[in-house]
Design goal:
Blueprint lengths: L13 E5 L2 E4 L4 E4 L2 H4 L8 H13 L10 H14 L5 E5 L2 H16 L3 E5 L8 H5 L16 E4 L4 H8 L4 E6 L13 H13 L3 E5 L23 E4 L10 E5 L18 H16 L2 H16 L7 E5 L2 E5 L5 H9 L3 E2 L8 E4 L7 H15 L3
Parallel strand pairs: 3-13, 5-6, 5-7, 7-8, 8-9
Antiparallel strand pairs: 1-2, 2-3, 4-10, 9-10, 11-12, 12-14
Helix pairs in contact: 2-8, 3-8, 6-7, 9-11
GO molecular function: identical protein binding; pyridoxal phosphate binding; transaminase activity
Cofactor: pyridoxal 5'-phosphate
Family: Belongs to the class-III pyridoxal-phosphate-dependent aminotransferase family.
Amino acid sequence: MKLFNVYPLYDITPVKGNDVFVYDNKGVEYLDLYGGHAVISIGHAHPKYVSNIQEQVAKLGFYSNAIHNPLQKELAEKLGELSGCDSYNLFLCNSGAEANENALKVASFVTGKSRVISFRNSFHGRTSATVAATDNPKIVAPINAQQKVTFLELGDIDSVKTELEKGDVCAVILEFIQGVGGLDETTAEFYENVDTLCKANNTFLIADEVQAGYGRTGNFFAFQAYNVTPDVISMAKGMGNGFPIGGILLHPSIEAWFGMLGTTFGGNHLACAAGIAVLDVMKDESLMEHVKVLSEYFKKKATEIPGVKTIKGRGLMLGLEFDFEVAELRKKLIYDYHIFTGSAKNKKLLRILPPLTVQKEHIDTFLTALKSILQPV
């Protein structure tokens, strides 16, 4: 049997990781400034993370959600404390797409409506409703296209108002910093007005924090830079540091009923052990404060790089925009300098999404390599 060939692959085979480094099957060390799509939050193979999972799997790896799982309650309590969203309720699942799918489902259940507003250059997942709400027709199959989704320009509040006042929109789903789209964001006035309009029109505001959440922007969630109160907050990626886990936080005004949502693997014992380790390390190592310091350092030093047109993003969700497409630049960084970086829908943007444990010397290594490529001696 062969693998279904849907991924273009770099010719690298990582077999081991340690903090911000990965090592391939030939023993070559790579500086990981992409974190596997922003998944690695507390560093590869963090000792606390490893021990939590080892100890849990030796006791009980899995049982269904038909029984009590105290680890779920511990995770919820620690998440509420660290995120500042302790009044919300937690539903656990397995991925970002599943989180957003459940968020949209709850919005439709509660409002009794079915149309969704999304934004140009958005990415919300590859499942049924989430891929329909993603601005990439290439990955939307006919069965997905049955969903009712309206795409608007990010920042166009008049269009949002017009669409909401039609009365059939169950949810506005919004990345407060667009990830795959290219780190675009708009004004506080826009985000706050969207929140106000949603509340006036019986429409849920869903904050998609799958990539921006879990401290990556310096706030626990990206929306916390603004005066907004989402009805649902979706999260995944950095939540498990590589172990598959996702979730949604639901506003306390949303009433649950048995069978409303469900999942086999969501919130399993191993996933919770991983998630608890991430929260403990983030708190014990003050990683959100560290993110802010490193972000300022990166932005200051990146201004010295020739050819950088714009520095985009917040925290350690960053992008360098050039006047040229960056595919070849990424290849040089990987093969010649052994540094992982990321791409975006914006082909001129180099995305930087390192583990939150990255240090100044790692940023210096990257910027020195970038200078060497862009301004060879």
